[in-house]
Amino acid sequence: MTQAARVTPITGIDPKVNDAELASRVAAGEEPALRLMMRRHNQTLFRTARAILRDDSEAEDAVQDAYLKAIRGIGDFRSDSKLSTWLVRITVNEALQRLRRSRRAAEVIPLAGDLSEGGEAQDNVMDENAETPEQQTMRAQSRRIMEAKIDALPESFRAVFVLRAIEELSVEETASVLSIPEATVRTRFFRARSLLRESLSREMDMAMGDAFHFAGARCERITERVLARLRAA
Q1: Paired strand residues for 30
Q2: Are 68 and 5 in contact (CB under 8 A)?
Q3: Taking Cα atoms as reference points, which of 222, 231, 233, 232 lies closest to residue 65?
Q4: Domain residue limits, the chain
């Protein structure tokens, strides 16, 4: 059993703790640190996996497995880089492996060409209780339209669009986690936006922030399942 697999119930952790200290405390098996890391990054990782797999359940499973790999390998995290970028890269690899397995009998079109093996999510959730039922209905409809249109993007554009437009990763960060040139990121992002504009027009800007809404229940489910698997290890 690795050190990271032992979950220790240490009480108290500053929610603003920096990446280096958080990674160190995750490596020590502190449960509050594990919970904080997952809640801080769940949304970004889910959206990343969802962009590749186009399936909510598969994306959840991919994120759980990515966390377990990250926790086991937390000693490889370098404090001079962002923890979010490191976690996204692991999630991309996990999602792509799942995609390849599911297409083993078919022709696989790589998402990122020569992708090799290998942002922080905001915890802010829009308070929909302040909206009227009509506004909630319109927002839900717009979100479904946006998700469907993103799903319809070519595979080579989809993850780039989600990371750049929804998660707001920089060109450099997106290129790093997908292992593609920065120029390719710019080109794919431009083409993705052009395709979406053609079908969404004004709806795109309204629905962008809510695409693949990360419900609190899903956040808790992923967190608790990862912790349960660690405790059982």
Answers
A1: 8
A2: no
A3: 222
A4: 3-122+131-232
Helix and strand element counts for the chain (H, E): 10, 0
Mean pLDDT computed over every residue of the chain? 79
- CA–CA gap between residue 53 and residue 184 (Å, rounded): 21
Q: Is the full-model pTM beyond 0.70? A: no
For 162-214, the pLDDT digits (tens) are 898 888 889 999 998 898 999 999 999 999 988 888 876 655 455 556 666 66
DSSP per-residue letters across 116-150: PP--PPP-----GGGS-HHHHHHHHHHHHHHHHHH
Number of Cβ within 10 Å of residue 66's Cβ equals 24
Q: Are 63 and 49 in contact (CB under 8 A)?
A: yes
Most confident of 70-79, 120-129, 131-140, 193-202: 70-79
Q: Is the dihedral of CA 116, 120, 126, 127 positive or negative?
A: positive
In this structure, the number of other CB atoms found within 10 A of the CB of residue 168 comes to 13
User: Which neighbouring-strand residues pair with 8?
Assistant: 30
Radius of gyration of the chain (CA): 18
